[in-house]
Amino acid sequence: MRAVGDGGEAGAMSNAMQGKTAAPRVERAVPYSREHTEARRLDWYFPAPEKANGRCVMLIHGGGFQKGSREQWDGVAAALSALGYVCASVGYRLAPGFVFPAPIEDVRIALDFVGRQAEKCGFDPRKIAVMGSSAGGYLAAMLALLPPKDALGWTDELSGNTPRPAAAGLYCPVVVTQFEPGECAPLDGCIRMLLGADGSDARRAAAAPLERITGQEPPFLFLHGTEDTLVPAEHCERMAARLRAAGAAASVCLIPGAGHGFGYGVETPAQKTAFAALTEFFARVLKS
């Protein structure tokens, strides 16, 4: 793993992780859509004006496609804002009431909305990164994989003008949707929840991030715990290898001893290690 930034960046990041900087200005429960507004809401986190760096991170929570909330990312979003990022933590519709491709529709609309707020919120729409954990990592990956006018998750609310995210930082993401009998049974249960009644092979393939790699993707960073018993780290390594083989940039940071869903915070040693890698990645990729 690369060292994180120069002395100034490292000092700012240390302060952010230790809560030594001013709290961001937060706007809660902002609707990002005309429909399904009970779920389609986001929380904005704005840095102090003197800290703003003109970049944005959109965060997507996990929860097996059936639970979770945008508030799970409070600590991480606050720490990113302390480093100058505008952050948007996004909610979306959940199973079993809403199944594939509903959550993809939602996050696509959210990304489009966030991009349209760039001038008002003080960031460059070409420098939006996405990040997520577990199911949220799946959705963030799909945002980075889908071309702007792809049919999957397309709705009339989309402008078609929002570019792909400039980077994707994924904590223990779900990237494999097809398994051998008896393989990854708990994870397979999450995929069944995502897909609903139609769990056919064709539908699993349509939902698979691994099957959508073209080489046109932005840089990816995978952050995965070595003790994750739900999503094998090998899945991230497989996807990173496919991205690289197609000509895209992808790296994997394995976090010793971390289990699934470890990333919601910046307090534990595992969280600090992952956050350091994530912020170094964002600073490097979004700077260009």
By helix and strand content, what is the structural category? alpha/beta
Largest sheet: 8 strands, mixed
Order of helices and strands: HEEEHEHHEHEHHEHEH
How many helices does DSSP assign? 9
Relative helix content: 25-40%
Write down the Rg: 17 Å
CATH C-level label: Alpha Beta
The CATH architecture would be: 3-Layer(aba) Sandwich
Overview of this structure, please?
The longest helix is centred in the last third of the chain and has 19 residues, at 269-287. Strands 1-2-4-3-5-6-7-8 form an eight-stranded mixed beta sheet, sandwiched between helices. The chain has nine helices and eight strands. The chain has one domain (7-287): Rossmann fold (3-Layer(aba) Sandwich), CATH 3.40.50.1820. It has 288 residues and is an alpha/beta fold. The protein is 35% helix and 16% strand. The model is unreliable at 1-8 (pLDDT under 50). The radius of gyration is 17 Å and the shape is globular.
SSE map:
Blueprint: H1 7-17, E1 25-31, E2 41-46, E3 56-60, H2 74-82, E4 86-90, H3 102-116, H4 118-121, E5 128-133, H5 135-145, E6 167-171, H6 185-195, H7 201-206, E7 220-225, H8 233-246, E8 250-255, H9 269-287
Parallel strand pairs: 3-4, 3-5, 5-6, 6-7, 7-8
Antiparallel strand pairs: 1-2, 2-4
Helix pairs in contact: 1-2, 3-5
Keywords:
alpha/beta, Rossmann fold, globular, 288 residues, disordered N terminus, eight-stranded mixed sheet
Can you summarize this structure?
By secondary structure, this protein is α/β, with parallel strands linked by helices. The protein contains nine helices and eight strands.
